[in-house]
Amino acid sequence: MTLRRKLVGGYLLVAVLVALVGVVAWRVDVGSARRAAITEAEHVAFGVARDVAFGLAPDSAGEDPGPLYDKPEWLHAYLRRLRDLQGRDIVVVDRRQVVLGGAVPDHVGTTFDHDTADQVGATIRDRVPRTFGEVSDDHPDGIKQVVVPLVGRYDVTLGAVILEYTPLYDEMVASTGRAQLTIATVCGAGVLLVLLVGGLLASSVTRRVATLTAAVHDVRDGAYERRVPAGGRDEIHQLGRAFNDMAAELGRSAREILAKEYTDAILASAAEGICGVDEHDRITFANAAAGRLTGLGVDGLLGRPAATVLPDVDPALGEGRADTVRERDMPAPDGSSARVSCTISPIMRDGRRAGAVLLLRDVTRQRALEHELRHQALHDGLTGLPNRALFNDRLDQAMTRSATGHGPAGVLFVDLDGFKRVNDSLGHSAGDQLLRIAAERLRDAVRPGDTVARFGGDEFGILVEPAGETVVARLPERLLQAMSEPFLLGGREVTVTASVGAVWDAARHADADEVVRNADVAMYAAKEQGKARCVDFQADMHTRIVEQLDQEHRLKTAIERGELRLYLQPIVETLAGRTEGVEALVRWQDPAAGLRAPGTFLPLAESAGLITDIDRWMLRESCLTLRAWQDDDAAGAPDWITVNISAALLDSPDLPDLVTRTLRETGLRPEALVLEVTETTLMRDVTGTAPRLERLRSTGVRIAIDDFGTGYSSLGYLRDIPADVLKVDRSFLEGLVGSDRHRGLLAAVVQLGHTLGLRVVAEGVEDAAQLAELVGLGCRYAQGYHLARPAPVGQLRTAAELVRG
């Protein structure tokens, strides 16, 4: 498409737009008249509705004419007067659309049936004004009607007012005729003017652009002397002047040879150092980057033999056609050094080397980053020790050397005893500090050539090479002694021991993974034997591992098979001896081992990730059991039940929803459920745990702090934790009888709990003497074997009935 056609098409488009604007203005004017008529009609109808519903304005003070709605004669007179004075036909209907008054008296008492679309009924229902057309034999073109709600006193809808606004509409539409004629005239003139001016401008612009295009073609063909007229001030003449200047510049550029200067400028501004070497290996060119990298500057490089400047980089290496790359540390004038990579590219001429180009790049940061990445990939970020990957690599090499007669290699697997308790009680920062101190002690305990690595968590590995008899006899003792010393964490002394598993002849095993795995097995054997000791690996240890895996598998399906059992231990009011509550305890009816206590399988459940499934089962079963007991024996049933919540379930975001759903499905009252959380679990992160506990309390349940006194908590934390019950650990009762010191400590804890408004429960009451001491100290609640042993709910209910009966 030519430029002229494009311009003409553009002006035609403008003309069309002008015409469209006129059409839109025409339609908008008509629409505005219609909306104005409707608005005016609604305004009048609302005034009529107000007069009908509330009455006309009083003629004198104290006069109350009352509404016209229930006065047919007054209403008829009012509507008749409006018709005579204003020429308006108005109909008033009640809520059932029965005509109360209108222009035709005969219609009074009949149902208004001119509204086929039920617009009147809709307005009565939702009080929204509407319009509709009434078509009849007398009025085939339709009568325009507006309907508004008739609302009386106390905001009661009494019916509707229907007003004909056809005359008003016709009058307003007619008034727009003159404006529409003006719009049509202006738009027509605008279209003609756009087409006329557009045609003239298109011809002028096309002619001058054609001239400029022809001149461009001439310059392209080499006629640099060609010029175009450029005496005007518009944009096309400015473009012509620019073209003339460009043609002149091209003419001058064509007569100049700038290739060498242009190339030198590029080389000089390059970020990499570039040196040109002639056939005699002397530097004939150097850019600023090369002078900076070598520390000699450009002038110091020019004319020098390349070998004197770059002794490790011999350009003669480029005798062949391929590039050669070398790296070296290059000293700087300030005494520092930089790692520089040099690429030698030979310049060949007639098959012989005529020189070379040296490309110098500073790779100091790149090499440092690569070294750092390699170090991070093979070392632990917290302790700086080698990680498992580097440890296994060194172990593979040690096993290869050992197999060729370089002496045995040994591996020790070290796990910190009690690390989780410290981490949970004092926080992760203290745990990280403990790991760093433990790593330093392990490094100090071994020889310089041995490897200490961190596998993850609180697990460390030690590679001993060679593992002679002296090392085998003394190293484990040194390790255990080093780890038994107290750790100072944040001003607090903490005692942590280590369990160590050892494999002293690694070469006898298949690979490094097997050696580490067997050392790990021996470490678990050390824990089973009492911790804080070193145990050498024995072949029969695999049997115990297989048994543990079998138990884990059976425990996974115990819930599905219905093997878990709910046991309850009473919580007794010490003065009256009445069972106020019960604690829910779990047992496992193991098909292979019989009824098992929680201590024999809950640690396995925690390590296998099954503890939350058991917690959820316990929560639901406990609520169902207590609700059934209370329904059957409201007088003898306990008032509440406590259910232990593990740290894993406490961290679950859906725990409040789980509790709410369980209470709703079982029908148990929220205040009858007490959720127990151990002190060590609470102390892991008080600021994070407190809001979760507050959410649980908002469901109506109560919170109990279990095993109080066993962790590293501060008594001040009690005021920050939203709790209702304080369960004192059984360790406070050991040595209580006959010891003023023990009695005073327990009395302080009980008094503190009462002061904070907590219900205090003493755990582990074993004899009558301990119970008597608790009564004397004012501890109202207790539980323990002296009071009642844990038992199924059926046994407890039978015992309670025997006591009452």
Over all CA atoms, what is the radius of gyration? 50 Å
**Whole-number average pLDDT?**
84
Oligomeric form = single chain
Major pleated sheet: 8 strands, mixed, barrel
β content, as a range?
15-25%
The global form is flat
Could you list some keywords that capture this structure?
805 residues, alpha+beta, five-stranded antiparallel beta sheet, 26 strands
Give a structural overview.
With 805 residues, the chain is of the alpha+beta class. It contains 26 helices and 26 strands. An eight-stranded mixed beta barrel has the order 18-19-21-22-23-24-25-26. A five-stranded antiparallel β-sheet has the order 2-1-5-4-3, with helices on both faces. The radius of gyration is 50 Å and the shape is flat. 29% of the residues are buried.
Short description:
By secondary structure, the chain is of the alpha+beta class. It is 47% helix and 20% strand.
Topology (elements, then pairings):
Blueprint: H1 3-54, H2 72-86, E1 90-94, E2 99-101, H3 119-126, E3 130-134, E4 143-151, E5 157-164, H4 166-175, H5 177-220, H6 235-254, H7 259-268, E6 273-278, E7 283-286, H8 288-294, H9 297-301, H10 306-309, E8 324-331, E9 337-349, E10 352-362, H11 364-378, H12 388-403, E11 410-417, H13 419-426, H14 428-445, E12 451-456, E13 459-464, H15 469-484, E14 487-489, E15 492-494, E16 497-503, H16 512-528, E17 534-536, H17 541-556, E18 564-573, E19 579-590, E20 594-596, H18 602-607, H19 611-632, E21 640-644, H20 647-650, H21 655-666, E22 673-678, H22 679-683, H23 686-698, E23 702-708, E24 725-728, H24 740-755, E25 759-762, H25 768-776, E26 781-782, H26 793-804
Parallel strand pairs: 16-17, 19-21, 21-22, 22-23, 23-24, 24-25, 25-26
Antiparallel strand pairs: 1-2, 1-5, 3-4, 4-5, 6-7, 6-10, 8-9, 9-10, 11-13, 11-16, 12-13, 14-15, 18-19, 18-26, 19-20
